[in-house]
């Protein structure tokens, strides 16, 4: 599988583009417009970011219990919000709150 097909290559944060999306892409992280080339690159159907992004943390039963007891910090639940404006079927469309996929851990030699 090539890096273009891998959802999360080593050291790179990835965001999947919506199906049938076509350039031009306007990308926003937490409502701040990003520049293609310096902030992100488009590889196939993926946006690739070198700078760290914060992915949404899944609320498991244990985490919900701890938070309900008032233990923990709510800012830990904050994640970066990725919005994209794109063209599909000849119309300008947008998608909000796209999922951030963290980098893949390097494979360990045994």
How would you characterize this protein structure?
The chain is mainly beta and 110 residues long. It has a single domain (13-99), classed as Sandwich (Immunoglobulin-like). Helices cover 7% and strands 35% of the residues. The protein has a four-stranded antiparallel sheet with strand order 4-5-1-8, with no helix packed on it. A four-stranded antiparallel sheet has the order 3-2-6-7, with no helix packed on it.
Query: How many helices?
Result: 1
Based on CA atoms alone, the radius of gyration comes out at 16 Å
Biggest sheet layout: 4 strands, antiparallel
CATH architecture: Sandwich
Shape: elongated
Quote the distance from N terminus to C terminus: 22 Å
Overall average pLDDT: 81
Assess the beta-strand content as a share of residues. Answer: 35-45%
Number of domains: 1
How do the strands of the widest beta sheet line up side by side? 4-5-1-8
**Helicity level, as a percent range?**
under 10%
According to CATH, the fold-level topology is Immunoglobulin-like
Write down the CATH class.
Mainly Beta
SSE class = mainly beta
Compressed to H and E, one letter per element, the order equals EEEEEHEEE
Please tally the β strands and state the result: 8
């Amino acid at each position: 599988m090539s890096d273009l097909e891998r959802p999360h290559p080593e050291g790179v944060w990835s965001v999947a583009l919506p199906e049938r999306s076509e350039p031009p892409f306007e990308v926003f992280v937490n409502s701040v417009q990003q520049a293609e080339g310096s902030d992100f690159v488009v590889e196939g159907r993926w946006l690739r970011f070198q700078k760290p992004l914060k992915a949404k943390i899944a609320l498991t039963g244990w985490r919900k219990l701890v938070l309900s007891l008032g233990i923990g910090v709510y800012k830990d639940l904050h994640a970066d919000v990725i919005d994209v404006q794109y063209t599909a079927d000849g119309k300008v469309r947008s998608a909000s709150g796209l999922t951030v996929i963290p980098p893949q851990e390097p494979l360990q030699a045994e």
